[in-house]
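User: My advisor asked me to double-check a structure prediction for Response regulator before group meeting. I don't want to rely on an old file, so could you generate it fresh from this sequence?
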Amino acid sequence: MMKVLIVDDEQMEREGMQTILERAFPNLIIEQAKNGQMAVELSHTFQPDIVLMDIKMPGMTGLEAVEKISSDFPTTHFVMVTAYDTFDYLRAAIKLGVKDYLLKPSKVSDIVSTIGKVVEQVEEAKKKRFLEQQTSRVIETDVVTQLLFDHVHDVHVDMLVDMLDTPIPHKLFVLVLHVPNNASSVTKTVREYVRTHHLGWIGPLYGNQLPIIVFRKEKTTYRSQAQQVVKKLLQEITVYSSGVFIGIGSECEGLETVKQSYQHALAATMDLSLESKYSYYDQVRVNSSNIGQFTRQEIGEYIRLGQWHQISQYMTKTVDSLERENVSLIQAQQRILEVLWSVSNVLEELGLERNSYFLDGVENYQHLRIAALQVFNGMREGFEQLKEQTETDTIHQLKNYIMAHSHEDISLDALANRVELSPIYISKMFKEKLGINYIDFLTECRVEKAKKLLSDPEKSVKEITFEVGYHDPNYFSKVFKKICQVTPKEYRKNLMWSQ
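Assistant: Sure, here is a fresh prediction for Response regulator from the sequence you gave:
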């Protein structure tokens, strides 16, 4: 519903205008203000889409009120209603961004026509902002994914960051929220809070982990900012779930090192039983008593990223640490079984049938190392076979989907939901199987479609921009030139010459 505020010091003028608008536009929500000061105050609660503002009023003038309201609500559209058809008034109104004006008295048809045009402008502006927000959210999610999980060429990260048009501070840090299963209300609330308060960028939910890249504030310390953000987030989401835990990564300088902060934030979630419901990385003590728990927190990521050597190294370090502290062989065996079961749980989520795993014939620590690696390698081989069987079909399915829907905003989340795999796994699979990431492939599809459309001289470059899935002709031209070495206009010109 569109909201309109009528501002005039004459009640009859206000009532008459409201009657005309209600008859012509029955879906409008209309409020009135009898002076400029009241209009400014009412705008904070009513938040009108359109303001019909009288210029000459006692106290605060209409132009002064417009300036104050527009500074707080820059998307509000203004129509000046005045008996003073002078150049100075009009020039001042135009400088303030006023969309149109009505002279007193006006014909009903003139009022309806003028307000009708402004209503259309508001609707178009809302649609544009919605598309920009949706596009921005898709890009933001992809940027976080690519920064934290190493699945894209650097040039695309730079281009996507440029598209977000966000000033990036010199220092950042990462939060990782451990979210209980089926807690969609938690993730939705967190996303809205992060974006509303401009805290930074938020990534996709990966398993039970939700990463947030937080931009550092200059006038506060890292620790005080982190504590303030975390406590605010916990206040927002405790209503929905008491099972949330937040790991706080170390402070880093620039996007190049943000992945290290992410790894630290993951490590900080190793002990979910802390009463505070959050932990800093520098509070984590990695020793023989908790190294098994530390491995379980990261094990899912390593499997999905194909970094099997990281898991085997963790197991070896765990055994070495337990042996150095003279932990009994039975306890050590149980600890390694916990790690292997963690691996098995992740593999089952990825489609591998669970088997029973035992460490038979273990008589000493050397036997334990050998038996654990044998079981682990058996799991890895089973997964690799399953992976080889399914990935070819999955990639084929995703390629066909992207080619058919390249004009839409396709995110990693959307692709992952389509084939019921994690976004990170999808990104990695594209790069391994095709040698490029999904954004490269999506871009190629859009450019190929654009080439075909450019052969039609009746279509403008702007029309083609929107038809192939971009929202900014300048950015489309930049992408097209990067791939084709020429701009769309130059490509069309060359195409015409060759025919």
